[in-house]
Amino acid sequence: MLAHPGVAREPGAGEWRAAASSTPTLVRMATIGEMGEDALIAAFVPRLPVSDAELLGPGDDAAVIAVDGDLVVSSDVLIQDRHFRLDWSSPEDVGWRAAMQNLADIDAMGAVPTALQVTLAAPPSLDASWVLGFADGLREACEPHGVGVVGGDLSAAREIAISVTVLGETHGTQPITRADALPGQAVAVSGPLGAAAAGYRQLMDARRIDEETIGLFLRPRPRIGAGLEAALHGATALMDVSDGLLRDAGRIARASDVGIAITGADVPVHEGARRVADELGIDPLSWALTGGEDHHMLAVFPREAAVPAGWTVVGATTDAFAGVRVDGEAPADVGWDHFGG
User: Alpha carbon of 132 to those of 1, 21, 45, 127, 188: distances in Å?
Assistant: First the structure.
């Protein structure tokens, strides 16, 4: 559990000083092994965002938060060189991503995110500035939404591994699952797709054609609140696009026992992704369909007239077939698989 003890060390043992009543001041940036757990926590915690729902935050055996309605819980992991690379991402980028992909999961239930629990495992040789930058990224992502980090854990490891548990609340509304879509309903997305895939491709190729898409891969920017908006407009199924439109639409199709017919020409493709694809000679629609990690919302509405302004209708549910088809054809590639690649 993250604590917030006061520590006082004389220069020499990591050159670190901290007082119980003030934010720690770094004299010389040390590794986290030199600094030690208590001093690292004392530096890390004051940089974290505070939740509007927090009754008791870091510093005890467990946090206490107020909940309005049902409690909604999700979790995610980020592993160094699997989900992020240190040569691509700043620590602030990693903190942002760790927060935002979890906030999107709560939004994808039509709920409101309130707090995070963050576990960080890292090599003792890691510079402490990385950990503090990671905390700053968490704060930058969370503060606009009133979400705080209320606790977590620290551990030594061979590589950086991050686990985040996010808590949310429904404010009395019913959570929206993947399982209640019916045939003949409208399928829509809350934002343009393909930006993250275009950013990833540029980083992999060591090219910088479009800076915006690179930035959107490193720091996803879904419109948090779009899920709640969908719920208030009567959405029958909802999730965020994390593994690609086709794979995630397939999950709704299976859970709801419907087919989903996607019209390729209606899928909104991010303009930056189009520029990158044009430069590389690639069909940008493939990134929008299978790229993933944009974290915009994918929702099914009872009828097209119920779709909120700013959303784009990309298809419809049907009982004519199972699974997902694009322009009437079953796709050969449906997107990212965490174990299959």
Answer: 17, 19, 9, 9, 39
The boundaries of the domain holding residue 274 are 186-326
Q: Are residues 220 and 260 in the same domain?
A: yes
The distance in angstroms from the start CA to the end CA of the chain is 33
Residue 47 is predicted with a pLDDT of 87
User: Strand 148-156 to strand 186-189: parallel, antiparallel, or no bridges (unpaired)?
Assistant: unpaired
For residue 279, what are its two tokens?
């430069």
What's the Cα-to-Cα distance from 87 to each of 84, 121, 146, rounded to whole Å? 9, 19, 31
Entry pTM: 0.86
Contacts (Cβ under 8 Å, ≥6 apart) of 68: 169, 170, 171, 172
CA distances from 236 to 130, 186, 255, 277, 298 (A): 42, 10, 12, 34, 11
CA distance 67 to 96: 24
Question: Both tokens of residue 124?
Answer: 């003792």
- Residue ending a domain, among 119, 139, 169, is 169
Residue range 41-53, pLDDT digits in tens = 788 788 888 888 8
Place of tokens 């991402």: 89
The residues facing 237 across adjacent strands are: 300
Conformational region of residue 312, where left means phi above 0, alpha means psi within -120 to 50, and beta covers everything else: beta
- Would 285 be classed as within a structural domain? yes
Residue 340: CA count within 13 A, CB half-sphere: 7
Instruction: Give the tens place of pLDDT for each residue, 67-98.
Output: 888 999 999 999 999 999 999 999 999 999 99
pLDDT band at 54 (very low <50, low <70, confident <90, very high): confident
